[in-house]
Amino acid sequence: MMDQMRLIRQRQSGSRKTTSERGMAIPGSPDTLVAAVHALKVTFERAGTRIFALRGVDLEIAPSEIVALVGESGSGKSVLGLSLLGLLGHNSKPEIEGEIEVVGAQIGSLSEPQLRRLRRESLGAVFQDPMTSLNPTMRIGKQLAEVAGSAEACIDLLRSVGIPDPARRLSAYPFELSGGLRQRVMIAMALAGSPKLIVADEPTTALDVTVQAQILELIRSVRDRFGTSLLLITHDLGVAATVADRVVVMYGGRVVETGRAESLLREPKHPYTRALLRSRATLDASGPRRLTMLRGEGVDSRSEEPGCSFAPRCELAFDGCAVTPELEIAGDHRVACWRAESAPGPEADPLVHAPPVVAVSKGLSSVRINDVAVSFKVGRGGSQGTLKALRGVTLDIEPGGALAIVGESGSGKSTLLRAIAGLAPVASGGVDISGAGKVQMVFQDAGASLTPWMSVEELLEERLIACGVRDRKERHRRILEACDSVGLYQQLLPAKAGQLSGGQRQRAALARAVVVAPEVLLCDEPTSALDVSLAAIVLNLIADLRERLGMTLLFVTHDLAVARVVADHVAVMYLGEIVEVGTTEQILNDPRHPYTKSLIAAVPESGHLPVPLKGEPASPLSIPSGCSFHPRCPSARSSCGETSQILKVSPLSRGHFIRCEPVVEELTWR
Amino acid sequence: MAIAGVYQSGQVSRKRVLPGVPEFVVQSSKGSLVTAALPILMTVVVLLVPVIAPHSPLVPAGPAFVPPGHGGFLLGTDSVGRDELSRVLYGMRTSWFSALAVIASGLVIGITVGAVAAVAGGWVDALLMRITDVFLSLPGPVLAIAVVSALGPGLVHTLIGVGIVWWPFYARIVRGEIRALAARPHLEAAKMSGVGPIRRTVRHLLPGALPALVVTASLDIGNLVLTLAGLSFLGLGAPAPAPELGAMSARNLTFLLQDYWTAVAPGVGILVLALVGNMAGDGLRNLMKDR
Question: Is there a contact between A449 and B194 if contact means CB atoms under 8 Å apart?
Fold first, then answer.
């Protein structure tokens, strides 16, 4: 009885807190909450080990509130989302403790038919990859009609999520739509039946920045128009900052900090939130720099020890951390940390700001790319076409330089890298690397780039043999040296890719690339599949290696903030062409090409709403005439569709090239 | 050190791996493991036949047509008084090794053709695969008959005839698996490492094709035992006195109604071999599936 009383009181005080936190007076008692999770513990059993996915979580979502659930893999954020939907699988046999109340119903006490009804009438879900959540064999219209009813309702829904020409789209199959449109369809499906709550699990992670900005804008407008509450699960604090009213940060199956988005991100109290913010590559930093690193790799969700899950990686940890901290009010938000008060503010932090990376010029090698074109034949018979992946790229990279190649998917940035590596068939033009054969590449999926049945040692040794190192002892010495330089434990040498963690795999791949120091290191999105804290470690490692070995670095990324951190020059690509190239400062602080401007404006950063660029890139199978960007260009003139553009040097600064005649003209006359 | 402050756990993931034992063996069910090991057991048994067999398979050891269990003959004697058990055991030995020999030759040819076709690509691939198609369309037993009639009767000639048509499946499997693997980043990474084409094929591609190949090959043992027994039943095996299961049951078919054991015992021998082959294949397939 006493317990129950305490419980109720806690819940009331909690909910009152959240209302005031949001700073908007929503009339209501706890009963009007859309979702209330209390002391939720979820434990799975996998291969005999217990996995503690959630270790006691409280969460409340008010009507028409956007709550962002932020955390890295293993934090339990997706499990929490699934439990709100009543979708915790039957096959993984979870043990569930605690209460989950959604739209007034206790999820735990509902039967499967009742759950289905609840989901149909009050809940919506959007997942990361719409291609796998949509049925590939059903037309969009038919799938939508399953939840929406009539065709008219479908058209209305599609229109409300901003899909152009909705009536025609009804007869399309999912594969005929672009990634952004598919995600819009998913949101339309989630909106059918005007749900009270939509759970969106990483809805923009698989999308390009510009499309991500469109979807984030849509999410906000959905809330504004329909008053739907949204639980937005994301690993990206930037995404959370731009759309959410309230941010809930999770770590190791617990909520570690929660509060209003702005205040939480401006004044994070929990050491984890703070580390997460610092290890994130951001656009506004100046010049190449090292990111702050978190110790260790990820959470051990098998650990049965009580206490703060973050303590093993926390620099403020002390003996008291063995007792699990509760969420306490701290300033204007709530934080679960014994040392939140004593923690220094973000500015006063002993931040290890390593000196900026200086280009080491040895005059040994440079990469000269001369008008390189790459095209692929696709399709057969009547539908045969030529996919122009690269349409004449010319670049000159000085020794020791670091060039980031950025662009949306389909821009040809990876093809350029592969052409330099000699992995893509170059149709015309040439790649000239002095010190040929000294090019090494780090792939996006490090795990897949390691031969599964060969040990790390065998792979490294193979590289040394290929480079003519005959002496066995010498090879062994250099293998150990390479391990040392990438921070890979020597005990892991006999291990195969399947036995390594994500970070260890990327280290092993790097070790192979540098065991014989290359002149040029090509990196193809090496961090895009990694958690934020792990990505920071890998980025710093690459910067260290570059500095030490004096390598020229070519780094392909879709993330402008990553480009800011690793590179001194940036090339922006669009549909197989470079549209703007210059120093990192020139491109990111003073972008001139309309496409670069839109790319930068679309990056979700706290402080401004992302400005989405309309549309999506054209297919490389049918490239628009004239300037290939003109159909999406906000400042396009009528002549842009006729004359194709050439890369011209900016009249303001040398070394800054822009492929846009009107912009160059304007700069000249100013 | 420049990367001071980078920490990571130095442990390999918690899966326990015994030294020298492939990982999939450790994780798999015991039943599959036992059945998959049956061919090894069978090979040991047939190797030991000269020791186990109570009598010579060729020299009469007693009166003709002694029923099973009498006079110290477990399976009785045949029409000339030779010990049936010894003859069946020696017959199994011949059949088993013949099957293994054909499979081994098939694997050698199949892996070579398949790997060369997949790696070379282009017209080499097209040519090799068309040749493979030609051999795939030849009916094995008929070709064996043709070879035997051309070269004269004998076990080796039969094996040559069957061996000629037994590799196309393996070639296709190897080619398919290698082509699928060749699209994976690990091959490009190996290329970037400067690994030459032969080593790339042998170390980075072939091991990936082996699981599928091993399963198919082991399932083929039973198949092959039956094919060879069928041919020897038709008289296309080792000539007369040699103990061959197919030939034995053919010759003793006339005694089936009175002295049934002379015809049935070799048949049971064939059954055992085919069963071992099929069980091993299934067991291996389960093991690979678990992996």
Answer: no
The SS3 assignment for A125 reads strand
What range defines the domain where residue B43 resides?
30-49+78-290
Based on the structure, what is the number of domains in chain A? 3
Domain final position from A484, A514, A544: A514
User: In 10 A of CB A91, how many CB atoms?
Assistant: 5
Q: Is the pLDDT of residue A14 over 50?
A: no
- Looking at the structure of chain B, the number of domains it has is 1
Please name the residue of chain A whose CA is at the shortest distance from the CA of residue B6.
Answer: A295
Å from B186 to nearest chain A CA? 4
Of B12, B17, B192, the CB nearest to A440: B192
Contacts of A454 in chain B (CB under 8 A): 203-204
List of chain B residues whose C-beta atoms are within 8 Å of the C-beta of residue A491: 10-12
Cβ–Cβ contact B267 with A under 8 A: no
List phi, psi (to 5°) of A368. -120, 115
Q: Which tops the pLDDT comparison, A509 or A644?
A: A509
pLDDT over 60 at A568, yes or no: yes
Q: Average pLDDT, stretch A222-228?
A: 88
**Binary contact (B3, A540; C-beta < 8 A):** yes
Are A541 and B207 inside 8 Å of each other by CB?
no
Mutation for testing the B interface, residue in A313, A438, A453, A480 having most B CBs under 10 Å: A453
pLDDT of residue A381: 62
Task: Return the pLDDT at A23.
Answer: 37
| Same domain assignment for residues A109 and A206 | yes
Question: Do residue A505 and residue A523 come from a single domain?
Answer: no
Where residue B278 falls among pLDDT bands split at 50, 70, 90?
confident
Inside any domain, residue B189: yes
Q: Do A462 and A480 lie in a common domain? A: yes
3-state secondary structure string, A435-494?
CCCCEEEECCCHHHHCCCCCEHHHHHHHHHHHCCCCCHHHHHHHHHHHHHHHCCCHHHCC
What's the whole-number mean pLDDT along residues A642-648?
Answer: 79
The helix (H) or strand (E) run that includes residue B103 is helix B84-120
Given this model, what pLDDT does residue A512 score? 92
For residue range A569-618, what is the model confidence (pLDDT) as tens digits?
Answer: 899 999 888 899 888 888 888 888 999 988 888 887 755 667 777 777 77
User: If you measure CA to CA, which chain A residue comes closest to B27?
Assistant: A47
- Choose among A463, A484, A487: nearest Cβ to B193: A463
Using CB atoms, pick whichever of B3, B13, B15 lies closest to residue A487. Answer: B3
Q: Let me know if residue B253 belongs to a domain.
A: yes
| Confidence band, pLDDT 50/70/90 cuts, at residue A12 | very low
Cβ-based contacts of A485 with chain B (< 8 Å): 2-3
The pLDDT of residue A427 is above 60: yes
Whole-angstrom distance, CA of residue A599 vs CA of residue A405: 13
* Cross-strand partners of A373: A391, A428
CATH number at residue B35: 1.10.3720.10
Residue B68 covered by a domain: no
Cα(A339)–Cα(A336) distance, integer angstroms: 9
Same domain, A473 and A615: no
Domain identity same for A299 and A388: no
Q: Are A443 and B208 within 8 A, CB to CB? A: no
Measured between beta carbons, the chain A residues lying within 8 angstroms of B195 are 462-463, 466
pLDDT in tens, A60-71: 999 989 999 998
Q: Which of A573, A469, A571 is nearest to A517 (CA)?
A: A469
Q: pLDDT (tens digit, 9 = 90+) per residue, A86-123?
A: 888 666 678 888 888 888 888 888 888 888 888 888 88
In a domain? residue B69: no
B46: closest CA of chain A, how far (Å): 34
**Residues of A with CB below 8 A from B16's CB?**
none
Flag whether A191 is in a domain.
no
According to DSSP, the residues that pair with A570 across neighbouring strands are: A404, A582
Q: Is residue A580 located within the same domain as residue A523?
A: yes
Q: Counting runs of H as helices and runs of E as strands, what totals does chain A give?
A: 22, 23
Query: Are residues A239 and A94 part of one domain?
Result: yes
- Give residue-wise pLDDT tens across range A181-223: 888 888 888 888 788 899 998 888 878 888 888 888 888 888 8
Please report, for residues A64, A418, A608, B118, the alpha-carbon distance to residue B125 in angstroms, rounded to integers and kept in the order given: 62, 25, 57, 6
Scan for tokens 């040692």, then name that residue.
A457
Domain membership of residue A550 as a residue range: 367-438+518-669
Whole-number pLDDT of residue A289: 64
